[in-house]
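Standup notes
- DV: blocked on the single-chain target, sequence here:
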Amino acid sequence: MAVVVDSLAGMAIARLPLFAVDCPDPAALARFYGAMLDWKIDIVSADRAAVCPEEGQCIVFHRVADYVAPTWPHPATPKQMHIDMLVDDLDAAEAAVVDLGATRHPDQPGPSYRVFLDPAGHPFCLCLE
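- DV (later): unblocked, structure below
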């Protein structure tokens, strides 16, 4: 049974100023994503860092002492998070993210995108528009 709430039609219930990613080294992951996205890096402490564009949502990285990297596509340890980013040239983008510290995942399920692992093991995709 679907529930319709007319009083909220067209209104957001919440705003999304950031999303948080668990990892073993917040500063390292902030530097990785900051360099890849050309976003400002903010190292708050040894336990928290962020990357932010000039306007829009930020990615925040939180230290987790017992962090276990995902084993995608094997379900032993689920993905935990996944980011798709648009690129104009897959080969050039791949070379750039690998140079930053990413690893190309051996499982590549589609021709219009490529799956990589960030330095903490989170999968992310570079996708053609």
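- Follow-up: The chain has two helices and eight strands.
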